[in-house]
Every structure is written in C-alpha cells, then in structure tokens.
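Annotators were shown the component list below and the corresponding predicted structure, then asked to write short factual statements about the assembly.
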Amino acid sequence: MKATLVLPSVLRTAVGADRIAVEGQTVGAALDAACAVYPNLRRHVLQETGALRPHVLCLLNGRSLPRTTFADHALADGDEILIHQAISGG
Amino acid sequence: MHADPPPLAPEEYRRYGRHLTLPEIGEDGQRRLKASTVLVVGAGGLGSPVALYLAAAGVGRITLADFDVVDVTNLQRQVLFGTRDLGREKVVAAADRLRDLNPHVAVEPLAERVSSANVRALVRAADVVVDGSDNFTTRYLVSDACVLEGRPYVYGSIFRFDGQASVFHPPAGPCYRCLFPEPPPDALVPNCAQAGVLGVLPGLVGSIQAAETLKLLLGIGRPLLGRLLLVDALDGGFREVRLRRDPACPACGDAPTIVDAVEHGGAACADGVAGPAVPETTPAELAALIAAGAPPLLVDAREAWEFQAGALPGAVNVPLGDVALRAAEFVGAGDVVVCCRVGPRAARAVEMLRAAGVAGARSLRGGLVAWRDEVDPSQVVA
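Structure shown to annotators:
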C-alpha cells in the first residue's frame, strides 16, 4: 500500500524531510521503510525495542493510534501517517 | 464554582458591554468571571496573550508565575512587554500592564519558580490553570498537580512553526501524561528557545488557551477535552486529534502511581533554568589557561546564529541538538570546555559528552555572559 508519512516541523530538520512516500502493509512496515532511508527518523520516533517513544504520537488519518498496537494497523492506499511529539516551548 | 458571585461595578457594565450582549455570557456569566481565579504559569510567549485576554475579559483574579526578567529577545513575541520593561521582573512589568488594561482585575505577580514546594497550593487556589511554561519539568509538575487537585489544565506549547493546545481534566478526559507518558530524553529535546519560534505562533496558541479558559469558567461551549489541536503555521492548517484517557496512566489511570507533584528533573529550554551539576571552569581559570598557551578545546553549544554573532576565538560550534550525534569527535581530545550563553545548555552538553566518553569535558561557569562580565568586556554575546 502506498501511504504518506508526514513529520512536524520539530522533526523536519533532524530527519531531513517533511513528507515521505512510504509503502507497506502496516503502519510498522511503512515506518521501517522510511527509517531505512532516513536513519535519524528511527532514533527520534522509536525505541530500540521498536516501541513508540513515550513523547511521540502516531496518527493514522487523524486518529491517534494506541501505543501498544500502532505498528499493526493495516494501511490502505492514500493513507496518511502523521507523527507528532511533545514540544515544550512557551 | 461560586454560589454568589460579586456584583459588577457601574463602570464594568460599559466595559464588558460586548460580553453582556452575548446570551451565553450576560451579566451572570460576567459575574462568574469576576469571581474566578486563574493561575497562569509562565509570562512568556503564551502567557502574554493568555494574561492579556483574561484580564481584558474581566477574570477577577489572575496569578501570574514567572521568575525571569524581560530580555530584548522576548519582545519579538511576548506582547505583554515593551522596550521600557527591559531588565524588569516579568511578573512586575506584566502586573503594571494588566492593571492598566483592566483595573477591576486583581493581579497577583509571583516572581518565583513553580516547584514541588508551591505547585499544589497554587493550583488548589485556582479555578483553572493555564500552562505557558517553557520546559518539560514544569509542564509535568503542573499537570500532575492539576490531576491531584482536580483542576482543569489548559495546555499549550509551541516550537518553531508548530503549536499544540488541549484541555486536560480527568476523569472527564485524559491528562497530559495520557498523551505523552514521559518527556523526551535530553539528546532528543528540541532546543526550543534557541531553535526559534515564529513570533505570532504563541499569539495563535495562547489565544486558543484564553478562549478555552473563559469557556471553562463560564461553563459554555464544548471544551477541547479529549481533543488535541495541532497548529501548523507554515501550512496554515489546524488538525484535531481525538485523545483517550489511558487506564494505565501513572497520573490519572485506574491505579495511579503518582501520588504527589514532584519535579522529575527533565530537560529545560530557557537559559534561565538551572541545568545539571557538572564539572566547571570559571572564566578566570579559562583566561589563565589561554594566557599560559595551553588553551583547552573550546566547544560552543549555542545555535549557529548566536555563534556567528560573536564567539570565543578558536571555538567549535556544536549546537546542543547535535552534541549527542557528534560526541565521538571529541573522545580523546583532552581538556574540553563547553560554553553557551549563561550555562544550562553547556551543562547538558557536558553531561552528554561525558556519557559518551569525553572525560575531560567541563562547562564554562556562567557562560559567555560571565566571560564578558569578568574577563573580556568587548566580547559580543547574542
């Protein structure tokens, strides 16, 4: 399935991209594919275990995915995976 | 909230006329606002529009907490202050501005750091708490205190072009820890103040926070409970994300493990917040080493624009956000002195360098400001 991974501005500089075309059957597979091209993405978004970092949110088509099962969600063509993270500026 | 709110003074009827006309507010609602107390944590980019709009709207008592002073770099976005306020305590300058805006409002300036020692009493005394702080330590502290004291927490945060806003008030909705269980590790912390922020962004997000606060106080409309509003100022877009309360949340879950509001010591963003204790070199000691012809390797942990404005001769610029990635370059380099503007970023950089094996890393005590004040008055410090 072809989907788009969208990063917030907080990650764009570190990762070097803002919208990444990804392919995969699941959110986890698509993220893995993106991380293979942008290694810094893995460091910022995933823990070594593959779990989502506690300060990161993963959304699929605007819906927040549960931390424990986010990687297993099936993708459809045209889906949008949105990553967000905690920011502290005030 | 308040059974018998105080009457409006004659002048207030004209002042709040546009509110009194709204059937959702009217005189009863305006009196409710007058009877209300709001705690605003942080008198910065977010705290500015929040405090201004709450005062203008006639919220009876506003407690404004911030221990910083007004700096010229604040004026690009912190609209509470003017050039005449430079060097003044923020809450004192803010109180003057807010009292001028609306003398019917009681403004309580609190020039203290919000900490474990005072946060629960401050939160308990307020009807609604608005977070305009600039660091994760305070955010988690205030959120936990709000959960424990049962107060609604009006959340807002900003970074570069991104903003977030929500209302947390368990059990009616999630809390901040349901959203982000833990703060990011230091190495992944966005370098907030130094990475830049679009000046108008806190105006956008802070105005949303002010609107949510007024709705909560008035009991009108649909609050941003269980909804996270994401603002992308570059894209010109707002997204809304549905949030759920996490039954496993350590603060508001079914078996909470957080039983008091305690600072976790996570990363801070502002220069005014103390960093970790690490080995230091004083400006005088550094000057002596340079004069003796044995200068250490100098690493400047500030952002590139600050470095370009003026840096120590021979210093290498490694912005704090890059330190973890580049630490290996400095293993075996001998004495390394890390500087920033006043110290906290350098302290965090030293901590990261030492963890990566740079055993000789130390921080320049007081940063380049101390260097300028104690050694070289000609040093330019952005």
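Statements collected:
1. Chain A is about 30% helix and 25% strand.
2. Residues 1 and 83 of chain A are 18 Å apart (CA to CA).
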